[in-house]
Amino acid sequence: MMYRAIVIGTSYGGLEALNMILPELKKDFPVPVVIVLHIGEHSNDIFIRHLNAICELEVKEAEANEPILPGFVYFAPPGYHLQIEDDYSFSLSAEKKLNFSRPSIDILFETAAWAYKNQLIGIVLTGANSDGTNGLKTIKHFGGKTIIQNPCKATSPVMPRFALKAVQPDLKLNLEEIADSLYQLVRTK
């Protein structure tokens, strides 16, 4: 299976989790990574600068109509739902919050699943609500690969636990195992 995108959803404890995963993905990592991190209405600027200082991949905020390309880690802008279109570009929406969140992990995951079908990897990490659960079910429905962080090791186990109740994931992993697993998945033909 050739994967064309990875989507990650996280909230409380997510920046620390991403600090462990993203620096392990080297410049030649062949698949783009798209992330919803719940941070309220605060700007992404500070942690994007921080991640660019420690990551080989370029980290940036996603923009409307931007094509999704390998070599990049894209973050949803605060206050907007991030959607993936059928032409593998982004669109932004200011529609109402879903699961008390905008950006919504479910909206990213569901639109990514519709676009990429079985060529998608979806990951739910630490977090404090159920956002991402329905989206991960959609990814599974389309034949994509699903990964859930082991809730016993998560800063906030709520999000991974909700996901585990609804989805039998392909992999349940500790943070330190995720980057290696992603390399194994994207190198498998």
What does this entry show, briefly?
InterPro entries: CheB_C, Sig_transdc_resp-reg_Me-estase. The chain is built from six helices and nine strands; from the N terminus they run βαβαββββαβαβαβα. The protein has helices at about 15-20, 45-55, 105-115, 135-140, 160-165, 175-185, and strands spanning about 5-10, 35, 60, 70-75, 80-85, 90-95, 120-125, 145-150, 170-175.
Describe the structure in your own words:
The chain is of the alpha/beta class. The chain has one domain (28-124, 139-147, 161-187): Rossmann fold, CATH 3.40.50. The chain is 32% helix and 21% strand. A seven-stranded parallel beta sheet has the order 3-4-2-1-7-8-9. Strand 1 (5-10), helix 1 (14-21) and strand 2 form a beta-alpha-beta unit. Helix 4 packs parallel to helix 5. The longest helix is centred in the C-terminal third of the chain and has 13 residues, at 175-187. The radius of gyration is 14 Å and the shape is globular. It starts with a strand and ends with a helix.
> What is the CATH T-level topology?
Rossmann fold
Low-confidence stretches: none
Number of structurally distinct domains: 1
Beta-sheet strand percentage?
A: 15-25%
Summarize the amount of helix as a percent range: 25-40%
Sequence of secondary-structure elements: EHEHEEEEHEHEHEH
Note the main sheet: 7 strands, parallel
Kindly name the structural category: alpha/beta
**Average residue-wise pLDDT:** 94
Specify the CATH architecture. 3-Layer(aba) Sandwich
Rg (CA only): 14 Å
Q: Quick one: how many beta strands?
A: 9
